[in-house]
């Protein structure tokens, strides 16, 4: 079997990471959550008071970039790789609404993107990888053998995200989750550097009306055909 690169892009909370993880496990491929890397930089900026509700020390953050080391370590119990910032496990810290509320502002910065894209390309050198994000099929791996663009209605996505956050014990309501999703969609689609877009050769996949299992089975068949 030849090893390929599978690029999965799409809007926030379309369930990309869940299915990407399942596909990688089924294919024995590596899974990389590129959004976790943007979230890690955001967490760093928040921890170091470089961004907040009414301030953003963008130039300072750019200067700090060389101090930010992001890595992934496979957790056998969880069955996927967790993200580390300078050696510290921050997998839970990056999944809060606080980080979600600032991440798209961080992801607009070209210097941030350049650094993370280089690392992502390095991770894909041996192929046999499933990576999800916003610009994987367009910028990170324009030559990927299989590109999938995931979409679902904003309401469906907000409902799913709300459930996920509530299951983790976070106190959030539907309106604020929906607002965050719509704001991120807007910024991600309209930014100058690497905006979220469907690659010309990507398969469009709308999962609004699919169960997780149906979605997995359909996508696995598409992957197997491409391999
Ligand atoms: O995938 P996730 O929702 O965790 O990504 C968080 C944010 O990181 C996105 O809203 C987007 O602003 C940014 N991102 C990006 N490019 C990627 C992955 C994520 O700009 N490849």
How would you characterize the overall build of this protein?
It contains 9 helices and 10 strands. The relative contact order is 0.22. By secondary structure, it is α/β, with parallel strands linked by helices. A hairpin with a 2-residue loop joins strand 6 (80-85) and strand 7 (88-89). The protein has a single domain, classed as 3-Layer(aba) Sandwich (Rossmann fold). It starts with a strand and ends with a helix. The strands form 3 sheets. It has a 5-stranded parallel β-sheet with strand order 2-8-1-9-10. Strands 5-6-7 form a 3-stranded antiparallel β-sheet, covered by helices on one side. Strands 3-4 form a two-stranded antiparallel ribbon. The chain has helices spanning 16-27, 34-47, 58-64, 97-106, 110-123, 136-140, 154-167, 174-190, 212-226, and strands at residues 5-10, 30-33, 51-52, 55-56, 70-75, 80-85, 88-89, 129-133, 146-151, 203-206. The protein binds cytidine-5'-monophosphate. Cytidine-5'-monophosphate binds next to helix 2, helix 4 and helix 8.
Give the strand line-up of the largest sheet: 2-8-1-9-10
- In angstroms, what is the radius of gyration? 17 Å
- CATH structural class: Alpha Beta
Binned strand content: 15-25%
Q: Which architecture does the CATH hierarchy give at level 2?
A: 3-Layer(aba) Sandwich
Distance between the termini: 7 Å
Helix and strand content put the structural class at alpha/beta
**Overall geometric form:** globular
